[in-house]
Each structure stands twice: as structure tokens, then as C-alpha cells.
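Exercise 7. Predict the joint structure of the components listed below.
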Amino acid sequence: MKYLVVVPAFNEEQSLGPVLKNIGADMPFADTLVVDDGSSDLTGKIAEANGVPVVSHPFNLGYGAALQTGFRYASKNNYDFVITMDADGQHIPSSAENMIQSMEDNNADVVIGSRFLGGGYRMGLLRKIGSRTFSMIARAYTGIRITDPTSGFQLLNRNAFEYLAQGDNYPLDYPDVNIIMALHKKSFRISEAPVLMTANNTGKSMHNGMKPFFYIIKMFLAIMMVVMKRKGR
Amino acid sequence: MSLGMRLMIFLLGLSLMLIIFELVRRNKFREELSIAWFAVGILVLAGSMADLIIDPFAKMIGIYYPPALVFAWLIFCLVVALLYFSSVISDLKGKIKELSQKMALMEFEMDRRTDTNAGSCQSRRQVVIPASEERPGPLLRPGEIPDKAGMTDKKD
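Solution:
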């Protein structure tokens, strides 16, 4: 079985080195790919210095597009599973074992790594409210309890990542609860597994400033579109 | 409306149409994008007869200040044009994403092949010139491959 860890990275020169070292140490069974999403710093060079292949976007396309490039790479190079991890060091690679186990136990196509299932993770009130709201929407639609719908730590089998690698099946920016719902609509099986996550090391977040407001509006629209769109592969 | 005013509006519309036509002819404007602007040109041309068309129509639908109908109609046209251009931008964004991803993957594949080729050439040279040998081997020039005895041959 071939595993590929896809690490989308945008200006992550500070954290990428240790992240790649941890992945190498904790997941020796997996290959790693860094997708440099148009970084202006040494992100790509640091990945190469760590012996990790780097696919570089000519300019910044967005987190989702970087992941989709990783899915395309995995599809082209005949990988069986893809593990997606952030480059900021939030995700603890050793937790991937839980997701692999969950995929086997539940015969799932996609396993979402949840920071809340194991307990102990704290986040701000606003983010907690947002996460809970999306959690409830996901549960109402899919019937599955998803405690961490915004998690970027995921395991996907070939069926799932090949589907997401196609055209507009994956968003340019943040793939969240809308993708979980879209995958459920396409009859992919989804489960959750407890994973360890630390607080963001770099202080950068996708959800800083005014972004959360636009993000929530965009996400509600995306959810509506998933519900309204016709089924069929 | 005076004849002079009619003539001025007509000439303005005609100029707009000619400019758009010239831009399309010089390939500075794509035909499908020019349609919206040709429509605007036709509307301006029709504007020279506006009082004959708009005044009776405005009165018919209960608008007592006919220019208000013109503004409302123009705003509607502009909104439709903006919607059209938004859809064009959205479509282009999707295409740019596809192209960039494919380009990035192709570039990666090309680099990998180049590295593999360079690596295999280097390993062949290392086999022929052992590190333990104190005497320097024959100098290799680009395109030359050493044979088993350490002699050099031209690459095929």
C-alpha cells in the first residue's frame, strides 16, 4: 500500500523543516510531497534540503488548490492513500495511525482527524461557535457526527482523492464542511478519528482579521450549493 | 428633442460602435466580449430617438419623469453586463488554476527526469574512476563515456 503525505505550504520556511523531519520519523511508511503554493520565502528550498519532492505553483492559488495539486500528483503516481497535513506544525504526524485504523475499522473512504475527540484542545470562543455550527449542519445533512469539520488533517483513499482531483470538485480556498457534505452526497463513506493537534506555532491563521466573516458567508453559500446541486458522479 | 441633440447622440453611438469594431478587428477585444458593448452602442444610437420611444412608454407604465426610466434601464443593463463579466472572470480563474496545476506537475516531472539522467551519468563516471586510485584518470570531456578499461569513447 502506497501512502503519500501532502503538505501544502505557503511561506512556511520557519516551521516546514521540523514538520518534514517529524513526518519522516513518525511515518516512515509514507512518501511526502510539499506543494509550494507560490511562496516568496525559502519554503521550497527547505523542503528540497530535507529531501522531499516539491511541486511549485507559479503563484499563490490557495490552500484548496495546493491540496488538489497533491491529489493530482498522487493519482498520477498511483498512490493508494493520501494524508493531508498542514505545514505550520499543528498536526502531530504520529496521530495518522489512528486515522489509518479508523479507515480499516469503518471501511471509510475519508477519515477526518478530529482534535476534539481525544479532548484537551482549546480554541477561541468564536471559532468554537463556528466549528460547532458547521458540525451541526454536517450532522443534519449526513447523519454522521463530525466533531471537527474544519480539520485539515485527513486521510483519503484512492476513490476519494481521485474524485477530488478532478476539475472543480475541490475549492480553491478552504475545503471544509462543504466538501464533507459533497463527498457524502457522492456516497463516499466518512468517519472521524482522534488526532493530536497543537496550537498554531507561527501565529498565522487562515481565519485572521475580517476573513472569518467572509469565510462564514462563503461557507453557507457553498453548503447551499451542495444541497441544491444534483447528485451523480 | 432638437435635431442637433439627436445628431450628437447618434454620432456618439456611432463612434462607440466604430471603436468597438476597430478593437475587435485589431484582436484587442474578443468577439464574445464585444457583444455586450455593441449592445451598449446600439442603445446609445437608439437614444437619439429616445423621446419618441421612451416618453410614451414611461407614461404608459406610470412614470411621469421619463429620464428616470432611462436611468433605470441603463442601471439594469450595467448590472447584466457586470454579471456577464463576473462569469467570464470566474471561468478564467478556474482555467488559470487548471493550467497552473498542470504546469507545476509537468515542471516537477521534467526536473525529476533531468535529475535522474544527470544522476545516472554521474554514477557511471564514479564507477570508472575509483576513489582509491592515486593516479588521476583520463580527463572526461562532455559527451564522452569511459569504457571498462578507463579509456574514453565518444557517446553514441
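Discussion. The first strand of chain A starts at residue 3 and ends at 9.
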